[in-house]
Amino acid sequence: xxxxxxxxxxxxxxxxxxxxxxxxxxxxxxxxxxxxxxxxxxxxxxxxxxxxxxxxxxxxxxxxxxxxxxxxxxxxxxxxxxxxxxxxxxxxxxxxxxxxxxxxxxxxxxxxxxxxxxxxxxxxxxxxx
Length: 129
Known about the structure:
By secondary structure, the protein is of the alpha+beta class. Helix content is 16%, strand content 43%. The chain has one domain (2-128): Alpha-Beta Complex (Nucleoside Triphosphate Pyrophosphohydrolase), CATH 3.90.79. The chain has 2 helices and 7 strands; from the N terminus they run ββββαβββα. The chain is globular, with a radius of gyration of 14 Å. The model has no long low-confidence stretch (mean pLDDT 96). Its EC number is 3.6.1.55. It is an enzyme of class 3 (hydrolase).
C-alpha cells in the first residue's frame, strides 16, 4: 500500500480569504478543490516541502508558516499523513502556476464536500475558528 507524506498550505490573506486550487481531472480525487501543497521528498522537512510546493504550484514564497493540524487518512489504496500549515505571510500573488484553476474563498464559506475527505477535520476547524 502506498504511504504518502503531504505538506499543505492554508494561504490566508488579511481579509480572511483562503486561496484554494482545483485538482486535475486525471488526478486522484479529480476536480476536488484543495489547499495547495504536495509530497514531502526524502530528506525534506514538512516545512521545507511546503515552501517548495507552494513556490511550484502557486508561485509564492512563503515567509512564515505555522503548523495548524496534522492528521492521518486511510484510502482503500493509500495511507496519507498530512501536515497543514497556516501561511499568512508570503511574497508574490498566488495563482495556478501549473495551469490549475485557483480562487480566493472566505474562510467561513469553505464547503467540506468540495474537498477530498481527508480535509474535512481541517475545514471544520477553520469554520469554527
